[in-house]
Structures are given as C-alpha cells and as structure tokens.
Design goal:
The protein is 46% helix and 17% strand. It is α/β, with parallel strands linked by helices. It has four domains: 115 residues, 3-Layer(aba) Sandwich (Rossmann fold); 113 residues, Rossmann fold, CATH 3.40.50.1400; 125 residues, Rossmann fold (3-Layer(aba) Sandwich); 131 residues, Rossmann fold (3-Layer(aba) Sandwich). The radius of gyration is 28 Å and the shape is elongated. It comes from Halobacillus campisalis.
Length: 512
C-alpha cells in the first residue's frame, strides 16, 4: 500500500509547529495516497523512524518520503538520507522513495512577490527590499537565494535587492538591517516557510529598528499560500517514482574547498555524493606582470638559451599571451621548438600538447625537486636556462638551481595577491572549531596562505578532527612542510581524483 511521510523541520515554537501541521493536513486530501503521516527532522516528535513505524503498522509497503524544505542543502542531502538508511535496515521489505525540496521555482517567487505587495504597494525607487534566507554553509544556498533576488528585481523592475541570512552565512540579518539608511523605506522579505523562533527574532529586530527611527515592514512568510500547497503536492507525486538510492559516501560531511579555479565543478561532485561543499577560496587574486612578461619573451627570442623550464600552465599561457601582444607569437613558439624543454605540472603538459610541443624532461611526480634531479644528469655546464617561476620567489628552489653550473634567467609572469583576511579567518575558525570534516587544497599557495595566517594552531585539528586533502605531491609536500603528517593525496594529481580519494576514505571507514 502506498504511503507518504512528510518530513518537516521542527521548531520549539508551538505556533510554528501548528502551522506546519495545518498546512500538511490541508493538502492530504489532494494527494493520491491512502496512508499519510507527518514527522519532524529535529527538536519535536514524531521523528522519521517513528513516522515510518506508524505507516508500516497501518499496512504501508511503499513510502514516499517528502522533505518539507524550501532549498536543497544539508538536511535534504545528508540528514534525512542517513535516517532513511537506518529505517531501510530495520524494514528491509519496505520500498522507500525520496522526493526533492521545492527548490527555486518561478511560481514560488510569484508567491514571494504577493507577500511583498501585501505590505507595500507600489514598490518604488525609494523602497529597499531585504531578502532574508535561513542560511547554510553550502554555497548553493547563496546561489539559490540570489536567484530569488533576481526574480524579485525582474518582477518589481528595480535594480537591487539586498540579501541577508539568519545563520551560517554572511551578511547576517542583524548586520544588514543595521546598515540600512533610516530615510529609506525597507521591506524585509523572509524566505521562510513556517513561523518559528527565527521569524520571532526578525519581528523583534524590525520593531527595534523602527523604534530607532527606521521605516521597515516585515512581510508575512510563505506559510499556506496556495502556490506553496500546489508546489508540494507536485513534489509528492514526483516522488512516487524516485527510488531512494541510499546514503552516499560524503553524506553528512562538510567539505571546504580552498580553490578558486574549478571550484564550481568540485562543488557539484561533492554535492552529488550528498556532501556539503563550503567554498572558501584562499588562492588569492592572480596578478599578471604583463610588461615584465613582454620583456622576458623578447629576451628569450632574441638571446641564446639551451633550456627553458616551464613550471605552470598559467605561466606558460601568460608568456604566450605576452608574445601575442608584442606580435611575436610564432617566433616564441619556434624558439620553444628549438630549445630543450624541462616541464613540471599536468596543466603545463596540456599547454605543450596544444602547441604541438614535446618536453625533453618531465617531472615524474610533478615536483621541481624531481625536475632538478633530472637536470643534474644532463650536460648543462655553462648553459643558459630560462626559468618561468611559479607565483613568487622560492628561496630553496632558486638556491638549488643556482647551485648548478648554469646561468639562470628568471621570469615571473604572474603572482597571486594574498587573499582577504576575512576569508582566511572564516576558514581558520571552521577548522579549529571542528566544524569541517575535510579541506581540499589544490595548490601549495593555498596551504602557504592559510598557514602564514593561522600557523601551528591548525596542526592539532588537522591531525585529529579535520582531514586535509591535497591535489598532488607539491601541495602534499607543503602540508608536510607545515607539520601536517596525516593527509590524503591521490595517485593522479587531478581534482576529480582528489575527491575520489576522499570518497574512498569514507567508504573504507564505513567497512571498519
């Protein structure tokens, strides 16, 4: 017999609990299932297991589990699936299907628009909208709230909608409303489904703001809007045909990504494994030394060099772009064709292949140490070597090269400006408070930036609570250099392989 289990969030606020119950009871006659129950994810009873138990006792053979949630974040990706897996073990003959949260939908933005117009119409240039979400460490939540804000801009024909959050993301609601100009009429728009302590705290803050000269109105939350009812009914009927696939390896895990490039792709892979990605890019901003690179390319073309060492794909491309700006691209590529090439890094190799070039020496493990060892076995005495440096002067690397019987020319076509201290501090706090399960590092620069800011304070949490993951040996060596001895390093220095390595680690843990 088909059954439905609605999983609402849960609140200590009695009115909020009753709102959720009233809403879910009101849609049940419109849902095609003979058995329907309501449970709560946290704080109040019944919980998920108790809800399933009730349905099984009533004769349910198949249960569609419906997350009564606006957005797809940690609860939907991890918390509910973890509970369902426990239930599946207890009732192995029971068929479980699993629905989606409502997500961002045009019709729901229409409902938000109506809530705004209930308190203020028309909206004009003297009115500021402040959209307030619950908040999450998952950066997808910020994108979703941003999409709602974009929808409101379009519907009201306004240029800007401010955004704030009640927890786990910035700016906070308190910070945002305190920055508002008292001469501006503010409409506070809660992107929340049911009443609760968060709504009550917003009411108190708006009241305090108005008592101190502000002009703010608080919209009614979404609650029992007919659009919300139909949207959830549609999710229920979709869920009948969506099998529950079990808990994936990263379920319940909060994974910080320190990278900037490809962070969205990494984020998507983590989310597909039911993990919660937290993007905290600490690579810093890339700064190209265009004029210097142009001079370096001129020198390379017009002078005699026996070797060219290319250390990064970014650097190789930056030098090529410099050759294009000075109108000497083909001469630059011809020079590389005629000169012995010593290469490290998969991105550098990829650039070479695009240009039809082949390396004479290639670092087997992706490190400069390995490349220098190979150079020592070549006949290089008295040779001139053109070195494309990585990011900034590295004393140990340069000392090792200068110890060779060569003449060294150094080119630094780019470097990274240190990241914002606020981002570094946020990541430091997440690590030392053990709020993360792992941190993904995709370059040694990220490791250097973090340890330069936080120092040895990170070693204890990295050894016992938060798992550091390095994209390859260069990044792993930098972690070890800073005192981190236990980490994950994939066999292949690629971002996908790094996440696979992390996933396999957690799979092995479940087997122990």
């Amino acid at each position: 017999m088909q059954a439905v289990l609605y999983v609402s969030h849960g609140t200590r606020y009695d009115k909020g609990r009753q709102e959720a119950l009233d809403f879910l009871q009101s849609i049940q006659p419109r849902v095609k299932a003979p058995l329907q129950e309501i449970c709560f994810l946290e704080i109040i009873s019944p919980n998920i297991e108790e809800g399933i138990h009730k349905l099984v006792n009533k004769g349910a053979t198949s249960v569609a589990v419906i997350p009564v949630l606006l957005l797809k974040a940690g609860h939907a990706l991890s918390d509910i699936p973890i509970e369902l897996e426990k239930v599946q073990k207890k009732y192995p003959e029971l068929t479980l299907t699993y629905g989606e949260p409502l997500g961002v939908q045009d019709r729901i933005i229409d409902a938000v628009e109506e809530r705004v117009r209930e308190v203020k119409k028309p909206i004009d240039t003297h009115t500021k909208l402040l959209l307030v979400g619950r908040g999450s460490y998952d950066s997808a939540t910020k994108r979703d709230i941003g999409a709602v804000a974009d929808g409101l801009k379009e519907r009201f024909g306004i240029e800007d909608v401010d955004i704030a959050y009640l927890a786990a993301a910035k700016p906070s609601f308190n910070e945002a409303i305190e920055k508002m100009d008292n001469s501006t009429s503010v409409v506070v728009v809660p992107y929340l489904w049911f009443d609760g302590l968060l709504i009550q705290s917003m009411k108190e803050k708006v009241q305090f703001y108005n008592q101190n000269g502000g002009q703010a109105s608080l919209c009614h939350h979404l609650n029992d809007h007919e659009i919300m009812k139909q949207a959830l009914i549609d999710r229920v009927h979709e869920a009948f045909d969506t099998p529950f696939t079990g808990v994936k390896p990263l379920a319940g895990k909060k994974i910080a990504v320190a990278a900037e490039r490809n962070s969205e792709a990494m984020e998507e892979i983590i989310r597909k494994q039911n993990g919660t990605p937290i993007i905290r890019s600490i690579q810093g901003e890339k700064w190209l030394h265009e004029k210097e690179a142009e001079v370096d390319v001129q020198r390379l073309i017009d002078s005699s060099f026996e070797w060219v060492i290319l250390t990064t794909g970014i650097g190789a491309r930056a030098l090529e772009e410099a050759s294009i700006r000075i109108g000497r691209q083909q001469q630059y590529l011809n020079k590389l064709q005629q000169t012995k090439l010593a290469i490290r890094g998969s991105k550098t190799v990829k650039w070479l292949k695009e240009k039809g070039l082949e390396p004479d020496l290639l670092s087997d493990d992706g490190t400069m140490d390995e490349l220098i060892q190979q150079l020592k076995h070549e006949e290089i005495k008295g040779h001139r070597i053109f070195l494309q440096q990585y990011n900034k002067d590295e004393k140990e690397l340069l000392d090792n090269l200068r110890a060779l019987p060569i003449e060294l020319y150094q080119s630094l076509p780019y470097h990274y400006i240190s990241p914002d201290n606020e981002v570094l501090e946020d990541l430091r706090k997440l690590i030392v408070s053990h709020k993360l399960d792992a941190v993904l590092f995709t370059s040694k620069t990220q490791v250097q930036n973090l340890f330069a800011y936080a120092g040895k304070e990170l070693i204890e949490p990295f050894h016992h609570h938060v798992l550091p993951v390095a994209v390859g040996q260069v990044t792993a060596d930098e972690l070890r250099h800073n005192g981190v001895s236990y980490l994950i390093e994939p066999d292949t220095p690629k971002m996908g392989a790094m996440i696979v390595g992390l996933t396999n680690h957690y799979k092995e843990q479940t087997l122990v």
